[in-house]
Write a structure and sequence with these properties.
With about 150 residues, this protein is an alpha+beta fold. The protein has 3 helices and 6 strands, in the order ααββαββββ. InterPro entries: DUF4440, NTF2-like_dom_sf.
Length: about 150
């Protein structure tokens, strides 16, 4: 076998292995973010304010198409407790979720979800978009920026 053929084969193997490694990293990140999403929204649906509080960065920016911009973590949590607890539940449309790394910061999660108004059981819930920018500090992940559309 010629030297050029060997170099080409080795290059293809190396690139293939690098891509597989990248896929594993992205899969691990995806699984991490999906687990965080599930934990947070279980707390959201069950009105566990302590757990929800632990997920928000102190420097939160929460953009809601109907509620506007919230930048005060304590006020955001009060609003969730007043307007959501026992009234609204959220379900994730798992197949819609994309997770992308943000170098030296964390990750971005983009997807679709549905909210159900428990006080209007016959109301039809339509899928809506959301974006969460997750910030990784040491080994803890926090929601830094949220865009929620309804």
């Amino acid at each position: 076998m010629g030297l050029i053929k060997i170099i080409i084969i080795l290059t293809l193997v190396l690139v293939s292995n690098m891509l597989k490694g990248q896929d594993v990293e992205n899969e691990a990140l995806y699984n991490t973010i999906m687990k965080l999403d599930k934990t947070y929204f279980t707390a959201y649906n069950e009105c566990d304010m302590k757990t929800q509080s632990e997920f928000y960065d102190e420097d939160i920016e929460f953009y809601h198409d109907m509620g506007g911009l919230a930048t005060d973590k304590a006020e955001l949590l009060k609003s969730i407790e007043k307007n959501i607890c026992g009234k609204v539940t959220r379900t994730l449309i798992e197949e819609s979720v994309e997770v992308h790394p943000i170098k030296d910061f964390g990750a971005i999660q983009i997807g679709m979800h549905k909210f159900y108004n428990n006080q209007e059981p016959n109301a039809i819930s339509k899928p809506t978009k959301f974006i969460v920018i997750w910030k990784k500090t040491n080994s803890k992940w926090l929601m830094s920026r949220v865009i929620s559309l309804h």
